[in-house]
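In this section we walk through a basic example: taking a raw amino acid sequence and producing a predicted 3D structure, encoded as discrete structure tokens. The instruction is simple. Fold the sequence below.
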Amino acid sequence: MPKMRKFLLACLSGLLLSLIFPKFDIEILAWVSLVPLLFAIKGENPLTSLYLGFAAGLVSFLGILYWVIVAINTYGGIHLILSGLILLLLVVYLSLYVAVFAFLLNYIRQRVQWDMLVVAPFLWVSLEYVRSFFLTGFPWATLGYSQYLNLPLIQVADITGVYGISFLILLVNSAVYDFISSIGHRERTPVREGVIVLTILSVVFAYGIVKLRKVETISSSQRKTTIGLAQGNIDQGIKWDPAYQEKTLQIYQDLSFTLAREQPSLIIWPETATPFFFQSEEKYRPPMLEIPEKTGAYLLFGSLSYEWSRGNVKYYNSAYLISPRREVIGRYDKIHLVPFGEYVPLSELLFFLGSLSATGNLSPGKTVQNLRFPPGDFGVLICFEIIFPNLCRKFVKRGATFLVTITNDAWFGRTSAPHQHLSMATFRAIENRVCIARAANTGISAFIDAKGEILKKSHLFVEEALVGQVSPKIEETFYTRYGDIFALITSAVALIFVLLAYLKRVLIFL
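The resulting token sequence is shown next.
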């Protein structure tokens, strides 16, 4: 096959991968999205495979993450050229994972002669897992998230996490590749492989159907907690302007009183809903304390906070909980901060880049702690903390009966990012069998049940008051108890594959 055709096939895989996530949501393409890349690297040496994999990754992540340039240029005030370079740097980094996948796949198969079906799923999942924590981690657009609307399929995430769905997708892609490759070669017809894949998919779907019924049955018999979400739709351009502080507070106050008509137990405002430091604000703190008193509901809201330490001040992205008795009864400080959004990595070298935070570099919180009110403990995830499965499960493991995520997706504008962000939250609900309430400044605010189904959601860039109900935790899942053991096992197997291929090369050389 000509080199240019192989390059175009790799780019086709990248295009298909970008179409399987929101807003496009053509999730069915995920099951064949990597087939063109597998054909592109067929028969190539590992180094050429590396380049082709990189091309596929570059096209896919540019299509998925184009909104980064909107966030840092339009709302962060960073020059367009520099914003483009930051986007390119991120995309190049993420593309390396696809490149390494293609490299190792051919490296192993050319030395050990194993089927694609055996090698590819383990390699892909192991690299996705590494991406979730390496260099603080960025598990955005993990392949399994593309199936968030396919409820029967994704219920197995309460065992495997999202990585199990990625594994299945690679399994099917490999089977399709083997089938097409066998056309015209009777002796190579992959009947056995096809039967194995169909059997695994059937078992997963059967498990999903059973779990959906079980969760629905348990949930319907539980006592539910009514929650109100206040979506203020505060423009990012004026959010931190002191002239708009009173107007901002008035908007959230009015939304809270609107929600109070439904008698919620908890009212939630988004991340950094208060454009001031609540802990020391003399003018606006008293009227804020009056809101839970007048509504009769506990109030959770996001606010920047600070602490003095050895003569230096540290700033945090925090969530406060106020009781109807006007008492601050809990605070959570965001643990996993957004690089360049809330702090600048390697700030001594990248001193010329500013943080998008109103206060510059923020400090990470130190402890995973739930907030407590009468219906039960709940965990708070701030902004993109919700995309980290292991962090979320820690809140549930420590007793959270449901999860809350507060965010300010105004940074993303009307791009696909708010939709992508929401889609990933559905897996946290399934993995831990908990409901999730999501409050966003400009949207998308939503309620997600323990099946991972989005029950209610708001519109983008609309001031809105949303009321819904959450059930307490259904059960302690395998995932909550043991975490990413599936990803760890697949990573160990992938490492064994690489070592065996390397040892065989050494033996041949000797």
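Looking at the output, two observations stand out. The chain is about 50% helix and 15% strand. The mean pLDDT is 93. In the next section we compare this with other chains.
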